[in-house]
Amino acid sequence: MSEKDNIVHQQALTSNQSSGKEPPYDLIRQCIAQNRLAQKKLYDEYAPLLYSIIKRYTYNNGQADEILNDSFFKILTNLQSYSMKGSFEGWMRRIVINTITDHFRKYIKKEPAYKVEIETTDMHVEGEIMGRMGYKDLLGLIHQLPETQRTVFNLFVFEQLSHKEIGDHLGINENNSRWHLNDARRRLKEKINLM
């Protein structure tokens, strides 16, 4: 993880996502009214959080920047659809996840189901090894996964989507989603056990 990514991750961890504060209603209204300074302020305030989500899916900074820009374009052009109720960050996060999956759907070929019955990989890893791993190490291992496995793993583990939802997002069937998740877990286990 580069220094920039580490700073972005730290900013995301300390962002107001966990503070539970109210959405910035005035700022949102100004953005809807096309106030460019307000739009920049919204971007500056939320880009680190959204970028940290995107970086779980891609290690390519150019690709991450493109997804972030596409996400903010969608956020700013659809702000009027935010009901001013519920989590504003959750609303933006859904847009970011949809943008990520739209981006990756272009590259994921429609593949036949690999197996009808999916074996579950035993994910037992020595506790001592896991204790030495930090976020940066885990992210590095996730980035080493092939793109489809990485995307499915992130959607299943971090976004808690079902295999049906993942399949709908990526244009693959549920069995493919299960196979990719199982393969991602197997690969991660192998890499962790080598540490």
What distinguishing features does this structure have?
mainly alpha
Fold and architecture overview:
- With 195 residues, the protein is mostly helical.
- The chain is built from ten helices and no strands.
- The protein has helices spanning 3-13, 25-32, 36-57, 61-77, 88-105, 127-132, 135-143, 147-157, 163-170, 174-193.
- Helix 1 (3-13) packs across helix 3, helix 3 (36-57) crosses helix 5 and helix 8 (147-157) packs across helix 10 (174-193).
- The longest helix is centred in the N-terminal third of the chain and has 22 residues, at 36-57.
- 27% of the residues are buried.
Alpha plus pi helix count: 10
| Major beta-sheet overview | none
Compute the average pLDDT.
Answer: 81
Proportion in β-strands: under 5%
* Low-pLDDT segments, ≥5 res: 1-19, 110-130
According to DSSP, the number of beta strands is 0
Q: In terms of quaternary structure, what is this?
A: single chain
Shape: elongated
Order of helices and strands: HHHHHHHHHH
Structural class: mainly alpha
Radius of gyration using CA atoms only: 18 Å
**What share of residues is helical?**
55-70%
Q: What's the N-to-C terminus distance? A: 17 Å
Précis, in short:
With 195 residues, the chain is mostly helical. The protein contains ten helices and no strands.
